[in-house]
Amino acid sequence: MGRRGRAVAAVLLVASAALGVAGAPGAVAVAAPADGGGRQAAAWLPQPTGPYPIGTTSLHLTDAGREDPWHPGHERELMISFWYPTARPAAGQERARYMAPSAGEHFGSDTGAGKLNYGLQPGSTDWSGILTHARQDAPARPGGSRPVVLYSPGLGDPRSWGTALVEDLASRGYVVVTIDHTYDASEVAFPGGDLATSVFPAMMGQPGLDIGAVLRKSMATRVDDTRFVLDELAGLRRFSGLPTGLAASLDLHRIGMVGHSAGGFTALQTMHDDPRIAAGINMDGQMHFPGPDGQTGVFLPSVTQDGLDRPFLLMGTRSNDSGSYHGQPGWDALWQNSTGWHADLTLEGSRHGSYTDAESLLPQLARQGAISPEGLASEVGTIRPDRAELATRSYVASFFDRWLRGHDDHLLDGPSARFPEMTYER
C-alpha cells in the first residue's frame, strides 16, 4: 500500500492513510495513435539503458498446498513473468505486448486500476497495443547464471506497471521476475482466457469494513505468494516450454527484491521472513496499518519491530505523509531496529506514482486528454519524467549492483551532484 491515500478502493487507502518521455530515442509506440476522432491515445515506454537486448516470457503457477485467501475452495494460482538478457533485440511483431488484450481492456475500464488508481478516462488508451522492448519467448543469453530480482507491484496494480524499471534491470544483466498477486491486482489474465479481477472495488463502501484486517490479509497473502514463487524458481527446470537457457540463467544464491507501494512492503517483509532474499528496496510503501479490531493506534508488522540484518533501501516521494523515514511510524521503527546497511532517499517534486510506469506514460496520455493536468500532477508531481526515470533506474541498479554483484559505483555513499532531485539520509 502507498504512503499516501490511494489504491483501487479509495475507502481502503484513505482510511489507512488517516491513522521515457514521449518520443525518446528507441521508444516503442502504441499501435493506434490518438487522432481526435475517437481513436485511443498513444504512449511510449522509455528505452532501457543497459548493454543487453532483453527477452520475456510468462509462467502460470499453482500452489496446490494453499487455498486462495480471496477465493475460498480454490487453489492459489499466480502469473509471473521473466525479463532477462538475450542475444538479439526484438524486431517487429517479436516485441511483447505491455498487457494481454483482455487484461488491457479491463485495466482501462470503469473498474480497472487505470481509472481507480490513476484517474485515467475509461477506454481512452489501448493498453495491449503498447509494445515493450523485449522479445517474446526469446532464448536466454549464454554466459552463465545471473543475479535474480523479484518485483512486486502496488495494491491493485498489475505486474506490468513497473515494466520500464524491470526492462532496464534486465538490460543490465539481471533476471527479473514480476509477480501478479491474484484478486489483489486489477486483473490477471491466465492461459485459456480466464481473467481474475480484483476483489477490492466491490469492498468500497461496505458497512463495518475492517480496513486494517483487509490490509493485513493482503500483505500476508503477498508474502506467501512471494515465498511460493521462490520455491518454484528452485525447480524451474521441471517446467516445459520455457525459453532455452532461462532456468540455467538464474543464480538463486544472489536474490534481491524491489517493490512499489504495497509491493515495497512485500519486498521487505518477505526479506525479513525468508533469508533467500539478500537485499531489498521499498519504493514508497507504507509499513504501518490500522490496529486490529478497531483499536486505536497503528499495527506495526514484524519486519519493523525486528528490523533487518541485510541491506535495504527506502525510496520515498513527496506524497502527503511521505518524505524522510522519520515521517511515519513503520519506516522509523524499521530504521531504528535494523542492523544491516540502509539508506533513505526522497525524490523531490514527485508523487506516489513516480516510481511506476505512470511517470513515463501519464504525461504523454495527459497531452492527449486521457487524464487532466490536475490529475497528472496528483499522480506524478512536477518532476521532469526523464529525470525521475533516470534517478530511479540509477539508484535501483546501483543498490543491486553493490549488494548482489559486488560492484560499487559509490552513488549510495551520500548525496550526489548527479541527482539533485534526490534527498539522501543515512
UniProtKB/TrEMBL annotation:
Q: Which Gene3D superfamilies match?
A: alpha/beta hydrolase (3.40.50.1820)
Give the GO biological process terms: lipid catabolic process
Tree of life domain: Bacteria
What name does UniProt use for this protein?
A: Esterase
Keyword Lipid metabolism, does the record have it? Answer: yes
Signal sequence range: 1-20
SUPFAM superfamilies, A to Z: alpha/beta-Hydrolases
User: Which GO MF term does the entry hold, naming one?
Assistant: 1-alkyl-2-acetylglycerophosphocholine esterase activity
What keywords are assigned to this protein?
Hydrolase, Lipid degradation, Lipid metabolism, Signal
